[in-house]
Write a structure and sequence with these properties.
By secondary structure, this protein is of the alpha/beta class. The protein is built from 10 helices and 18 strands. The strands form 3 sheets. Strands 3, 5, 6, 9, 10, 17 and 18 form a 7-stranded mixed beta sheet that branches. α5 (216-222) links the parallel β12 and β13 (226-229). α3 (162-173) crosses α4 (189-200). The longest helix is centred in the last third of the chain and has 13 residues, at 309-321.
Length: 359
């Protein structure tokens, strides 16, 4: 039996219970978790913003050690440290064929199939196919990526979502060039990764925007040159900080219509806005046909940082080993499994950076 935080129903409180986790089946591995990040997407799954069969074990940002592999799995062996990839690409669908594995049509297939049971026999589903809010999990071997040398296993959990997403938003989606100005809306786990990635890219100025003044120290430590409290004139303030033109790039990490609109307004003519935040379908953003023509700006979505995790993890490891990317600095609290509900409340209140469940 394995301890896990279970979501019994949408909008229901998490339950910390023992679950019956099977041994890995064909093509699967079993992983003992070292740590799991508490991501806003987990909150979105719990409240129904994102669809997830229930009851489910949430959590998708994790790292740990392989404890067992099924016969036929040759890419991993017991004892291997791994990072969980919540969106493993199939390699054969239309989008994979286009070289866009982050849009893989089959990446979420694992989330819709039961993977474990409660002690009384109820089937459980894995949140986003990963189910890392548990001491151990069973996933496809394709969803467990070898952890490069020199990266601390516990902090490596952040690579599974926040860091790949933030790094990719800058380097793949927005394609930030050295010397370009960047505005980052939302200084949570992903926002902190975006700021660090912008610094690594040589961007400047880097303007961080958040509703909480308590985020300023975190933002500046990550590489922000300026910090603004979100206000009705935020776009005007960003134009002032960028020579009167507006930012070359804005990255929205909140998922709110108002914030997306402000991010767009804060960019220069010809600027790029990349939306990382996941909002509900009721969040509608409006633009006039005239402004779309006049400003010549680009607005684009960003899924998982438009990354190919297998290729990007070694690059991130190089930055970590060289001291350019600080994983531990993104973590503002380390908790046990029973601390997840409080971490959800902190996210709703806009407090802190990334919370890490440490096993």
């Amino acid at each position: 039996m394995v301890r896990a935080a279970v979501l019994p129903a949408v909008n229901a409180p998490l339950e910390l219970i023992e679950i019956d986790l099977p041994q890995p089946g064909p093509g699967q591995v079993r992983v003992r978790l070292a740590a799991a990040g508490v991501c806003h997407s987990d909150l979105s799954l719990s409240n129904g913003t994102l669809r997830q069969p229930v009851p489910a074990v949430l959590g998708h940002e994790g790292a740990g050690t392989v404890t067992a592999v099924c016969d036929g799995v040759t890419s991993l062996a017991p004892g291997d440290p791994v990072v969980l990839n919540w969106a493993p690409s199939c390699g054969s669908c239309h989008f994979c064929g286009l070289g866009e594995p982050w849009l893989c049509a089959n990446a979420m297939a694992g989330a819709g199939a039961p993977y474990a049971r409660t002690a009384d026999g109820r089937e459980l589903y894995p949140g986003l196919g990963s189910a890392v809010f548990a001491e151990e999990t069973v996933v496809s071997a394709h969803a467990a990526l070898p952890l490069p040398d020199g990266v601390p296993l516990t902090d490596a959990a952040l690579l599974g979502c926040a860091v790949l997403t933030g790094y990719g938003a800058i380097h793949h989606a927005a394609k930030v060039r050295e010397g370009e100005s960047v505005a980052v809306f939302g200084v949570g786990g992903v926002g902190l990764a975006v700021i660090q990635a912008a610094r690594i890219a040589g961007a400047g100025p880097i303007v961080a925007v958040d509703v909480s003044a308590g985020k300023e120290e975190l933002a500046r430590k990550a590489g922000a040159t300026d910090f603004l409290i979100s206000a009705p004139d935020t776009a005007k303030q960003i134009r002032t900080l960028t020579g009167g033109h507006g930012a070359d790039v804005a990255v929205e990490c909140v998922g709110r219509a108002e914030t997306i609109r402000t991010a767009w307004d804060s960019t220069r003519r010809g600027g790029r806005t990349t939306v990382v935040g996941i909002g509900g379908k009721e969040q509608q953003v409006s633009f006039s046909a005239l402004e779309l023509f006049h400003f010549g700006r680009t607005l684009s979505g960003c899924v998982y940082g438009n990354c190919d995790p297998a290729k990007d993890l070694p690059l991130l490891a190089d930055h970590i080993r060289a001291g350019r990317l600080d994983l531990a600095g993104m973590v503002t609290e380390r908790i046990a499994l029973d601390g997840i509900p409080a971490a959800f409340e902190a996210m709703l209140a806009g407090r802190g950076g990334r919370t890490l469940v440490v096993f």
